[in-house]
Structure formats: structure tokens, C-alpha cells
Amino acid sequence: MILDGKALAARLKAEMAEQMPQIEKEYGRVPALAVIIVGENPASQTYVRNKVKACEVTGIRSLMISMPEDTSEEALLAKIDELNSDDSVDGILVQLPVPKHINEDKVINAISVDKDVDGFHPQNVARLWLNEPCILPCTPKGIMHLIEETGIQISGKKAVVVGRSNIVGKPIAKLLLDANATVTIAHSRTRDLAAVCREADILVAAVGRPEMITGDMIKPGAVVIDVGINRISVDTPEGPKNKLVGDVDFASAEPVASWITPVPGGVGPMTICELMGNAIECFKRRN
Ligand code: GUN
């Protein structure tokens, strides 16, 4: 069965939109999210556009800040500082990656912990790993919502996370662990990755390699969460065409899995939906 992230995200965003008049009445204003993009990376521009659109749908005020590719690190940090001090701004997001001449860690560190809607700040990461209240990173939070949507019980299950990024791999492993799964984190150096994956009742693919997880690597009946968003070129009778594919080879995986997320329309929309939730959460905590 298809785990429809687009539909779930739409439902959750509609619920947020419904709450917005009450929030505005109670607090005297609506939450505000600042989204900063540096440069012209086309994929980043699409993501940022979708984030601003989601703000419109939910009733969150958005501030879209576009800065040129040659923006200095100093100028970006100054902009973040300005937004940190702006009491009318509740959440700050800098779309990653930033251009190479800007230090990503410095940028993440510069965002006020209270406005860190991505949950990337070291203090939020520490809180996550120490089981303290924190802002959870959006993609892992969205994945947990998707798994809950299947109705399967996570407790006691074997979960394999392929990929060990700070944004997805590591935090989703922690959330699955908190839900009492037995968690394995696999990566590029894992020996016999196929055998490791075949053990998984819940398989999360977050490696950024197009269609690398194939049906023969999946345990029959597993829940498969595909975090990959890869743009590849495919040959068609009309010539080469760009196509969006995940880290999972959907055609061979779909018949084996019990539930599987599509790409696009799976994890991607959930990430954005959770971002809206985090913006509202930051707003409520700050007020
Ligand atoms: N780039 C890719 N994913 C993300 C994300 O979740 N947040 C930000 N800020 N940048 C990203």
C-alpha cells in the first residue's frame, strides 16, 4: 500500500489552518517564519517556494529573504542576528546547502535556539539525545507521523536506517529507538548492506543515491520509508527527460513492502508540514 505523505500533510496543514483564528485571538497575532535562501540552487528554490506556500495554507506569516550567491558569511550572520532580535519573528530557517564560502555550522549555531524551526542547532540536538523537550527536526518527525499512519506497532520491531546524516539518519534512528524499535544504522561502509536491510521490519532509506535499495533487499511485508529526492535523467522516445526518484527502486520494492512512500509525494510534503508545526510550536513557547 502507498503511504501517501501528500494527503497526510494536507490533512495536518488543514488542521493547523483551522486552529489559526483561535491562536490569533489568544496571542494577538499569528506565528511568523523567516525563510532565508542564499544563491540560486534550483532545488533549494523549489523547496523554499513550497515552504512559503505551506505558510499561506496554514495561515503562518512568512518572510522570504533571498540573498545573492556572493553574500558574505558576515552579511548572512548579520541577517540572522537581526531576525533573532526581531520579536515578531518566531522561526528562522536557512535553506541548506549554503554556498561553499559560508560555514554551515556557523550559520546553524547563529540561529537562536528558540527560533530553530529546523531543530539543527547543537543545543536542540543535545536535547533530543538527552530526552529533553526540544524542537524535533522536520524530516524525522514527518517519518514518525507516516509510520504511525500505517497503524503498525513500532515497539519491538527491527528498524534499519540507511544513511547517517545529522539531518535525517541520526535523528530518525533516535526517534525509532525512543519508540522501542531495535535500530541499526547502516551506511556506505556497511558490509552486506542487502542482508542488513532484509532484516528490517521498518526500512528508512536516506542516503541520497538514486534507486539503490531494490526489492530483493526488502523483507516481505516491511514498511519502507524513502527519504531520497534525486533528480536523474532518463531516456525516453522523445529524448532524455529529468525525473525525480527516491533512494528506493519503487518498481521492485512496492510488491514486496506492506507500506511504501512514493517519491515525490511521500516524505517531502511531510517535512514541510512538520516545519509549519515547529513554527507554531516555537511561537507558542516564545509567547
Ligand atoms: N536542505 C535540505 N533539507 C533541509 C531542511 O530540512 N532544512 C533546511 N534548512 N535545509 C534543508
Describe the structure.
The protein has helices at residues 5-27, 42-58, 73-85, 104-110, 122-129, 138-150, 169-178, 193-198, 250-253, 267-286; strands spanning 32-38, 61-67, 91-94, 158-162, 182-186, 202-205, 223-226, 230-236, 239-245, 259-260. The model has no long low-confidence stretch (mean pLDDT 98). Helix 2 links the parallel strand 1 and strand 2. The protein is α/β, with parallel strands linked by helices and 287 residues long. Bound molecules: guanine. Guanine binds at residues 93-96, 118, 138-139, 167, 271.
Which geometry do the CA atoms define? globular
Mind telling me the C-alpha Rg? Answer: 19 Å
* Helix/strand structural class: alpha/beta
Residue share in β-strands: 15-25%
Average pLDDT confidence is: 98
User: Percent helix among the residues?
Assistant: 40-55%
Taking the sheet with the most strands, its summary is: 5 strands, parallel
- Summed up, the helix count is 10
Q: Which strand order do you get reading across the main beta sheet? A: 5-4-6-7-10
Kindly, what is the distance between the CA atoms of the first and last residues, rounded to a whole number of angstroms? 42 Å
